[in-house]
Write a structure and sequence with these properties.
Elements (H helix, E strand, L loop, with lengths): L5 E8 L4 H13 L2 E8 L6 H16 L1 H4 L2 E8 L3 H4 L25 H16 L1 E5 L15 H15 L4 E3 L7 H23 L11 E2 L2 E2 L5 H17 L1
Parallel strand pairs: 1-2, 1-4, 2-3, 4-5
Antiparallel strand pairs: 6-7
Helix pairs in contact: 1-7, 2-7, 5-6, 7-8
The protein binds zinc ion.
Length: 238
């Protein structure tokens, strides 16, 4: 490592979900060196962390030209977040919308913390680009997914580290149907197959039911978005 962030190198915030999976493929198509980071924040459903490992393994096996660019996977222990947050993603509380319009799956400041940790890894590994699957088009209203939040964060991180980092959000202005289409454009049917089989979005952690659009309970907001997006993409494609 030289201490100079490489513009052709990226760190993807990869949760194992469909959005960050597409971001990973996008980074592998666009940059020469790509690493991944995942966060263990005491998720209620450990399945997410298992799915991300499986997805990475299958990606390496089925896409040798991407595997050649794909470096180490970093997993950060942030289980302390559970001690200071009360949210349905971490505790056993049922999923509901709060009075402020946000779902109780909102973990306050989660993306701010994730990017702070990611920036520390990127600094050490000379990775200039931080890639995240945040999106303002089909989303639950989380304020830390907004474009303005991430632009401000990019400035704060670059100043605080005295290194120019760039936050890339390729999904920011596209809907879930377009996210499926982008995945297909990047990796074809084989990559869509990996997303369907290995990516996990369901808030309920349900992997018992396989639908046309992948695994999930089918009724939580994440499943609804994923299902509607997949069906719209298929309808547009046919
Ligand atoms: Zn679900």
């Amino acid at each position: 490592m030289t201490g100079v962030p490489s513009p052709d190198a990226a760190l993807v915030l990869f949760s194992g979900g469909q959005d960050s999976g597409v971001c990973l493929a996008w980074a592998l198509e666009n940059f020469a060196r790509v690493e991944t980071v995942g966060f263990d924040y005491g998720q209620r459903h450990r399945i997410e962390l298992e799915c991300r490992r499986t997805l990475l393994e299958n990606l390496r096996a089925r896409f040798p030209h991407w595997a050649a660019k794909l470096g180490p996977d970093h997993v950060v222990d942030m289980t302390g977040l559970g001690a200071i947050s009360q949210t349905s993603l971490i505790s056993e509380a049922a999923f509901v919308y709060e009075k402020n319009g946000l779902p109780n799956s909102f973990v306050p400041g989660r993306n701010l913390l994730f990017f702070g940790y990611a920036a520390a890894i990127a600094y050490r590994r000379d990775l200039k680009r931080l890639v995240g699957g945040m999106c303002e088009t089909d989303y639950s209203g989380y304020p830390d997914c907004r474009d303005d939040t991430l632009k401000a964060l990019q400035v704060a991180l670059s100043l605080g580290l005295d290194k120019r980092l760039v936050i890339e959000t390729p999904l920011m202005w596209i809907d879930k149907a377009a996210t499926w289409a982008l995945g297909h454009k990047l990796g074809g049917a084989a990559f869509v197959d990996i997303l369907l089989e290995d990516s996990h979005s369901c808030y309920a952690g349900d992997r018992t039911k396989r639908h046309a659009w992948g695994y999930g309970c089918g009724v939580c907001p994440a499943c609804e978005l994923r299902k509607a997006g997949f069906e719209k993409w298929r309808a547009n494609a046919s």
